[in-house]
Amino acid sequence: MKILSPKQIAEADHYTIKNEPISPVNLMERAATKCFEWISSNFENTKSVKVFCGTGNNGGDGLVIARLLKNKGFSVKTFILPLGNKQTEEFSINLKRLDDVCAKIVFIEKQEDLPKLSPRDLIIDAIFGNGLNRAPEGLSKNLIQYINEAKATVIAIDIPSGLFSGKSVTAKDSVIKAHHTLTFQVPKLAFFLPDNKNFIKDWTILDIKLNTSFINKLPTKYHYFTAQEAKATYKARNDKWAHKGTYGHSLIIGGSYGKIGAPTLSAKAALKIGSGLVTAYIPKCGYTIMQTALPEVMAETDHEIELADFTPTINATVIEIGPGMGTSDLTLAGFKKFLQNNKTPLVVDADALNCLALNKELLTLLPKNSILTPHPKELERLIGKWDNDYEKLEKIKIFVEKYSIILVVKGAYTLTATKEAFYFNSTGNNALATAGSGDVLTGIITGLLAQGYSPREASCFGVYIHGRTAEIYTTNHAPETFTASLIADYLSDVILELQE
Ligand SMILES: NC(=O)C1=CN([C@@H]2O[C@H](COP(=O)(O)OP(=O)(O)OC[C@H]3O[C@@H](n4cnc5c(N)ncnc54)[C@H](OP(=O)(O)O)[C@@H]3O)[C@@H](O)[C@H]2O)[C@H](O)CC1
Ligand SMILES: [K+]
């Protein structure tokens, strides 16, 4: 699914109005009706709804929602914050329509006009939407702060007021902290960025039927990888003549004394996602552990307690390197030698990333389209510090272009960054915040590459699958009890779901 800029959304809006055709006020009615339906079914027992509107079209949406809720029997009060002397035409039409149903409407002209708010109120934030072009100040800033202090449940329409959909927020005290955001047609880039986690919690995309063929033609670097994209990526197995060689050979290089679990988890994940063959290249101390834990996996060994020689003998389709490997001098020296001689596509994680961060010149030795899977701290070691998330995205872009690689930046919305496009993942939850979860992710990506998925597909799809296991698990288990070993056990559920 595309993530569009405010300008592109306005263009899609205009195109739909002209070509469907539909009048602007009817499009507003359609959009706001979707919000109303969501609110009335999720908050049917709510006694008091307070709707705060600006005087642009976001405010117009608020007026329609107020009218529809009132007609449905909710107790509704509407508060209007005049934005200068202007009202959009659709706002004015809907103000009249709201007035006609004898609704309670209050204009907020000064601080004293702010109403009493109770934590039991349901607040609808329709002050600013896509049209925000500067940080709110004065009365609008005060209103936003006042709403945030009320500790009431806040539903934001389209986007929390004060949050820019495509640029950084400097005044963090003038943004609505929404519990839920009902956004129109496409998600906004701001939703995926950790800097905004206090403003955006849950959100729902409402399909307001903007022209899809127009949207399909709009260029964008940013995408949201959902079940739809996952289904389109999945390659069902239907080759009767397949043998284990058909599905590739994954080589997992990693481990050190006390950290054999990491490559074991990766190897298990590569195997369980369908890699035809898996070999682990580990220190000698891990031999019995690996062979006992995973009888299907072959093992080759290096020095006694750490990797030093890096001399696997097999001809792998893909190599994962790094889990549990450590960064000792001996390991680092061997890793350098390995990179100088290796031509096989790599998935690089954990200590191998730290070795690269310590020796940036090694980055040039990575085969084209190698996949690096850092968590935010590892990312910072690779690309340097950033002031805000938009600067981080820019640095990521420069980094992937410079080295012709793919970055999988782990987080609540794990980002797969390729030279061509950035994909935010839609699945996962905090059950994945558990030891070894990252090792399983790299194993899944490695196993997908071995089977012939492209590096972009393996990254986006692997991240999606990994996240989905946690969602399925937590439908009937406590998130605290999820472990990395369990992830592999739920891969089958995810794949069966994709086949539906
Ligand atoms: N296609 C869709 O998604 C649809 C969206 N709808 C809704 O429309 C809004 C966008 O409406 P718009 O009127 O363009 O913009 P806003 O309502 O967000 O803002 C109104 C005006 O506010 C002024 N502004 C901007 N920043 C500030 C500020 N910091 N302080 C004070 N005033 C500010 C600005 O005017 P200026 O002339 O003062 O610059 C804005 O124009 C979208 O979000 C949806 O909710 C439709 O209902 C259906 C289709
Ligand atoms: K809003």
Q: Can you put this structure into words, describing what you see?
A:
This protein is α/β, with parallel strands linked by helices and 500 residues long. The protein is 39% helix and 15% strand. It is built from 17 helices and 17 strands. Helix 3 runs parallel beside helix 4. The structure holds ligand LZDS7PUF and potassium ion. Ligand LZDS7PUF binds next to helix 1, helix 2 and helix 3. It comes from Balneicella halophila. Keywords: ATP-binding, Isomerase, Kinase, Lyase, Metal-binding, Multifunctional enzyme, NAD, NADP, Nucleotide-binding, Potassium, Transferase. It catalyses: (6R)-NADPHX = (6S)-NADPHX; (6R)-NADHX = (6S)-NADHX; (6S)-NADPHX + ADP = AMP + phosphate + NADPH + H(+); (6S)-NADHX + ADP = AMP + phosphate + NADH + H(+).
Spatial strand order of the main sheet:
8-17-16-15-14-13-12-9-10-11
CATH architecture of the largest domain: 3-Layer(aba) Sandwich
Largest sheet: 10 strands, mixed
Number of strand elements: 17
The gyration radius over C-alpha positions equals 26 Å
Q: Hetero groups bound?
A: ligand LZDS7PUF, potassium ion
Question: What is the structure about, briefly put?
Answer:
This protein is α/β, with parallel strands linked by helices and 500 residues long. The protein has helices spanning 6-19, 24-42, 57-71, 89-100, 138-149, 212-217, 227-233, 261-272, 287-293, 329-341, 350-358, 376-383, 389-403, 437-450, 455-473, 484-489, 491-499; strands at residues 48-53, 75-80, 104-107, 122-126, 153-157, 180-184, 202-206, 222-225, 249-253, 277-282, 298-301, 318-321, 346-348, 371-372, 406-409, 415-417, 422-425.
